Request: fold
Amino acid sequence: MSRLFANGLMKLRRRDFLKAATIATAAMGLPASMVDKVAAAIKSPARPPVIWLHFMECTGCTESLLRTSHPDVATLILDLISLEYHETLMAAAGHQAEENLKRAVEKYRGKFICVVEGGISTKDGGVYCKIGGRTALEILKHVSADASAVVAVGTCAAFGGIQAAAPNPTGAVGVRDIVKDKPIINIPGCPPNGYNILATIAYILTFNKFPELDELNRPKFAYGRRIHDHCERRPHFDEGRFVEQFGDEGHKKGYCLYKVGCKGPVTYANCPTQRFCDVGVWPVAAGHGCIGCTEPNFWDNMIPFYEHVPGVEVPAGQGIVGKAERIGKFAIGAAAAGIAIHAAAGVIKKATTKEKEE
Amino acid sequence: MIVYRRVKVWSVLLRLYHWAFALSIITLFLTGYYIHNPFALGPWEGTPTNFLMAKIRFVHFVAGYVFMAALLTRLYLLFFGNKFERFTDFIIFRPRNLVRLFHTVRAYLYLGEHESHGGHNPLAGTVYLCVLVLSIFMALSGLFMLYPEGGLWASWGVALFGTQQIARLFHYLLFWVYLIFVMIHVYLVVWNDIFGSEGIISSIFSGRKFLKA
Reply:
């Protein structure tokens, strides 16, 4: 603990430290008896070196992590790791910063964890995102080649994010499409919950292995269950009580947001249990539906955010976006018209031809 | 005077499949549309609860299992059914069936005589095969949404659809395909009963069709 207090910037009391360790332990789905072990791991002086890369993103993941109302999460994460390179936080700039990156990669070859924030441009050789004269693609390939593992923080790094949304002018992709030979953990979200980042790192330090991951390389303790299945508004769903539009009686009463486009039923994340901002809020609690920000391509698949299912392009790729329901009704109408015409022709035929005796 | 033979065409298993499939699809339509767009709201707070959505979802899932059982039965009969039920009887990749397909289309356009050979005509048979393939996807997308945390279904679901939202969209678009299929199917069956001589509607109850001797 003394190390925590040695740094004048950090005013983390033991009570707060244990609280954060407990929340991280709970996030991992571990029993209370494991808190000591996790706390010990967080306190251990064996700090893994981390190189934190920023590519095409808004820095919102870092910002949301640093600006928690209490310093717990950010302080702990920054204390848990030895941050060798982080463009937002480091004092160095320009050539000095580039030098730092080069030196860190050489010094900790094969040992450091590469954290990536932001998508990577691949079109036209990746020229749409350059740092210090090198493309993001080059930097990621160069740094990840010597990393022990890659952690993709945020939806941009995990799946490409907003710049990968159609028509994806810069050919943006997530880390998983570039780095094929290193273990990857995705912690998607826009932004992801800081405790999920802390818990993932604490898990690796405590058990010296990766947490269990799902098909999309997301830690199962955080992304193993759909938002809908742990939502506090779920009883209203089962009862059939819905918000018809924002601001109506049902909205005031806190009914289910399913009919105003909540994507909770199709989104995996622990938002209902982990919550945000240290004060126990999350979008659905505040009266807005989930927009599905932890899912791949959510900017394409989850829109319109206030509709149940996405629009379908007819014809594909040419832009007239119609709602699936309108298309369905049109097709039904066309089929009904066809049947009517066919039946009318049959009636005319019956009326004009003489019935044969059989 | 034309003489007809009454020929056994559809086995008991196929008739059971047809009605399980039909009734489950009607149930799935009604419950599925409610789940998509819960137009009838549950009781206001303070009144006795009835868990409207939960119950309708339950009925939807039960009907879904009936649907899948019927689907598996038909898939079995495609290979091991009687000669009218096997896929080889009506796939269009046979010269005999191409001729029959031509006759069917001609008859549907009121340009020729209606012919019957016992089983499905190749046009109907091809559509039924497509519906069976779509049904497999319908079942897989449904199972993916029903078991979001189940290892097997989650892996298959992610491999096939990517995300739950795409599975949901797929499930919903197929709903309209089925609706149109059912409409046209019922219409053409009635049409065949009027213009044809097989007794096609009674055949799905009795299993027997009238064929020219």
